[in-house]
Write a structure and sequence with these properties.
With 264 residues, this protein is α+β, with helices and mostly antiparallel strands. The chain has 2 domains: 144 residues, Fructose-1,6-Bisphosphatase, subunit A, domain 1 (Fructose-1,6-Bisphosphatase, Chain A, domain 1), CATH 3.30.540.10; 104 residues, D-Maltodextrin-Binding Protein, domain 2, CATH 3.40.190.80. The protein contains 7 helices and 15 strands. The longest helix is centred in the first third of the chain and has 25 residues. Bound molecules: L-MYO-inositol-1-phosphate (LIP). The site of L-MYO-inositol-1-phosphate has 14 residues, from strand 5.
Length: 264
């Protein structure tokens, strides 16, 4: 039996240290390290340095656990647990000096396959905003000492968030989805960090969130926050290159899913 509280404390402690490093490096000036899938898909030296800090801490504290990080790839698990890490989620915001970025650290039972893993604990830390979201399986979702709960309904229409991939050829399809869903919405937000979008759904700051094409590290911690706050997180089109993730309270999730199914 895994001690999910201890795993949560470890994720929290490392996320705090990693977030402070990211904030320090940003203040010193951002160095672009490379581009990845497209010219818009950037990685900074800080992304790599922060992920290495996280990986080193986990190797010391949890030898034998598996690892999947956005920048340094994966390592198989010898213990049955795998850490899924986005060192700086919202990298473009980070590069431009916007505060909406976060360190996302999750630990799952199983390997880094979202179709089969069981989320055990997670932390999402936004260092500039000074907010640390945490969750452990069966222990609820928290912002500091405040327990979180998703919104049950949205009588004035749902405040929704979404995002778009780095590949401009996908933007028309994603905008068609937005157009399809807007009749449910009172408004739409596009913050640029999936981990924060999911944290905000858990906190009731958003009524729902949907996005195609997220990678496991973008949502591993945030999805646990939402489910531990009473919400529902689903991924559909999982055989495609761009699965659709939807996160919301049960009623709003059903409304979004109904529209998406009619769309497809
Ligand atoms: C980002 C996600 C965001 C998405 C961006 C990007 P990154 O992750 O958090 O929701 O819309 O396209 O994938 O690249 O900053 O780690």
């Amino acid at each position: 039996m895994n001690d999910v509280r201890r795993l949560r404390e470890l994720a929290t402690d490392i996320a705090r240290e990693a977030g402070e490093l990211a904030r320090l490096r940003r203040a010193e000036g951002v160095l672009l390290a490379a581009t990845k899938s497209t010219v818009a898909d950037i990685v900074t030296e800080a992304d790599r340095e922060v992920e290495q800090l996280i990986r080193d801490r986990l190797s010391a504290e949890r030898p034998g656990d598996g690892f999947l990080g956005e920048e340094s790839g994966g390592a198989d698990s010898a213990t049955g647990l795998t850490w899924v890490v986005d060192p700086i989620d919202g990298t473009v915001n980070y590069a431009y000096g916007m505060p909406a970025y976060s360190v996302s650290i999750a630990v799952v039972e199983g390997n880094a396959d979202p179709e089969t893993w069981i989320g055990l604990a997670g932390a999402v830390y936004a260092p500039v905003l000074g907010e640390l979201f945490t969750a452990a399986r069966g222990e609820g979702a928290w912002l500091g000492e405040t327990r979180l709960s998703v919104n049950a309904e949205a009588p004035a229409g749902a405040l929704l968030a979404t995002g778009f991939g780095y590949d401009p050829t996908t933007h028309d399809g994603d905008l068609a989805t937005v157009r399809q869903i807007m009749p449910l919405a009172r408004d739409l937000r596009r913050m640029g960090s999936a981990a924060l979008d999911l944290s905000y759904v858990a906190a009731g700051r958003l009524d729902g969130y949907f996005e195609r094409g997220l990678r496991p590290w973008d949502f591993a911690a945030g999805a646990l926050l939402v489910t531990e706050a009473g919400g529902v997180v689903t991924r559909t089109d999982t055989a495609s290159e761009r699965p659709m993730l939807v996160a919301a309270g049960p009623e709003i999730h059903a409304q979004i899913s109904s529209v998406l199914h009619n769309e497809s």
